C-alpha cells in the first residue's frame, strides 16, 4: 500500500472500536492516507411525507403520532452518531497527523451501512472492531464484524488491542495455502511500511489425511508440484513457502516459516496466540469448491476467534 490508502473505519464509541483505532498504529499504513470514520445509527427512519395532512381517523392520527416519535428518535440517534464520529476523527488526527480524516454518519443496519459505504467509496481497507461477547451480544454486536468480513468485497481488518504495545516492532502471521487470495495477503504485507525489527511468519497447515492428495486434485496448486516430488509429500509446500519468503524479503521483515498438519483454522489461532502475533493476514476465500473441502477456508473463523487483529485480504 505504497500509494495513498483509503480507509473506512467503522466506529461506535465502544472499547472494541477504540481498540481497533489504536491498533492502526501497528498496521504499517502509509502517511498519505485518507480515512472516513463512519458511525451508523441502528434505528428505523421514516422520511416525512411530501405533503403532511391530518389523519382522517383516530387510527390514522395514532399512526402519524407514532411515526413522528420514531422519526424524532432516529434524528436523535443520528445526532449522537455524529458526535461519536467526530470523537473518532479527533483520535485519529492525534495518532496520524498526516492523514486526511473526515466523519460520516448513516441511518441503517450497521453491517449493511458499513458494506454499502465501502463499496460506494471504493475503500482499500475497512476497519471494524471486535471483542469477547456474551451470546446476546454476539447476536446484536459481534455479528456485525462477522457480516462485514463475510459479505464485503473489500479487504477488512478486524482490529484488536495488541499484546505487544511495549515493543514498536510488529509480528505478522500469514496464512499460506497456495491460493491466489493467499498470495494477495502476502502482497498486502509486502506493501506496508513496517518498523525496524518487525517479523513475518509464514504458516501452512495441512489436513493430515489429505496431504498426499492436495497437489493432484487442485489444479491451481499444480505449479508448485514437480515430478521429483514422489518421495517427498511436502516438497510442493516447501517450494511454495520459498517463493513467498523471497517475495517478503523486499519488506525489510525478519522472516520465518512453519509447515504443520492439523486443522488450518485452529492451527492459525494457536500459532498467533503462542507467538503473540499482532495481526494475522489471510486471503478472503482461499481455495474454492472441492478445493475448500480439501484444504479448508479459514478466514471467517480466524477473524471471529483470534485474540489479535486479523486482516482478510481481497483483490
Secondary structure layout:
Layout (H helix, E strand, L loop, with lengths): L4 E6 L4 H9 L9 E9 L16 H38 L4 E8 L2 H12 L3 E5 L5 H17 L3 E5 L11 E5 L4 H11 L8 E8 L7 H4 L17 H14 L5 E8 L2 H12 L3 E5 L6 H6 L3 H7 L3 E5 L2
Parallel strand pairs: 1-2, 1-4, 2-3, 4-5, 6-7, 6-9, 7-8, 9-10
Antiparallel strand pairs: 5-10
Description:
- It is a single chain.
- This protein is α/β, with parallel strands linked by helices and 315 residues long.
- It has two domains: 5-44 and 76-159, Rossmann fold; 171-313, 3-Layer(aba) Sandwich (Rossmann fold).
- Helix content is 41%, strand content 20%.
- The protein has ten helices and ten strands.
- The protein has helices at 15-23, 58-95, 110-121, 135-151, 180-190, 214-217, 235-248, 264-275, 290-295, 299-305, and strands at residues 5-10, 33-41, 100-107, 125-129, 155-159, 171-175, 199-206, 254-261, 279-283, 309-313.
- A ten-stranded mixed β-sheet has the order 3-2-1-4-5-10-9-6-7-8, with helices on both faces.
- Helix 4 runs antiparallel to helix 10 (299-305).
- The radius of gyration is 23 Å and the shape is elongated.
Amino acid at each position: 500500500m505504497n500509494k495513498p490508502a483509503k480507509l473506512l473505519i467503522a466506529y461506535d464509541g465502544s472499547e472494541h472500536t477504540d481498540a481497533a483505532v489504536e491498533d492502526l498504529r501497528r498496521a504499517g499504513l502509509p502517511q498519505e492516507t485518507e480515512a472516513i470514520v463512519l458511525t451508523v445509527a441502528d434505528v428505523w427512519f421514516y422520511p416525512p411525507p411530501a405533503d403532511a395532512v391530518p389523519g382522517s381517523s383516530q387510527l390514522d392520527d395514532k399512526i402519524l403520532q407514532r411515526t413522528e416519535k420514531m422519526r424524532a428518535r432516529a434524528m436523535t440517534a443520528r445526532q449522537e452518531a455524529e458526535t461519536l464520529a467526530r470523537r473518532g476523527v479527533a483520535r485519529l488526527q492525534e495518532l496520524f497527523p498526516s492523514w486526511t480524516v473526515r466523519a460520516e454518519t448513516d441511518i441503517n443496519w450497521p453491517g449493511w451501512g458499513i458494506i454499502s459505504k465501502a463499496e460506494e467509496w471504493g475503500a482499500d481497507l475497512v476497519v471494524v472492531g471486535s471483542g469477547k461477547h456474551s451470546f446476546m451480544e454476539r447476536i446484536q454486536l459481534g455479528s456485525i464484524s462477522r457480516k462485514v468480513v463475510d459479505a464485503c468485497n473489500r479487504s477488512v481488518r478486524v482490529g484488536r488491542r495488541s499484546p505487544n504495545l511495549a515493543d514498536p516492532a510488529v509480528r505478522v502471521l500469514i496464512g499460506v495455502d497456495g491460493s491466489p487470495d493467499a498470495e494477495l495477503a502476502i502482497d498486502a504485507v509486502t506493501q506496508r511500511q513496517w518498523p525496524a525489527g518487525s517479523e513475518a511468519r509464514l504458516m501452512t497447515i495441512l489436513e493430515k489425511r489429505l496431504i498426499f492428495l492436495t497437489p493432484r486434485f487442485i489444479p491451481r496448486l499444480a505449479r508448485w508440484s514437480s515430478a521429483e516430488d514422489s518421495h517427498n509429500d511436502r516438497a510442493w509446500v516447501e517450494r511454495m513457502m520459498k517463493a513467498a519468503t523471497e517475495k517478503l524479503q523486499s519488506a525489510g521483515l525478519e522472516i520465518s516459516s512453519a509447515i504443520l498438519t492439523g486443522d488450518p483454522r485452529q492451527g492459525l489461532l494457536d500459532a498467533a496466540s503462542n507467538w503473540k502475533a499482532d495481526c494475522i493476514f489471510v486471503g478472503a476465500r482461499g481455495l474454492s469448491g472441492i478445493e475448500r473441502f480439501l484444504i479448508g477456508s479459514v478466514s471467517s473463523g480466524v477473524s471471529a476467534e483470534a485474540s489479535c487483529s486479523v486482516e482478510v485480504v481481497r483483490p
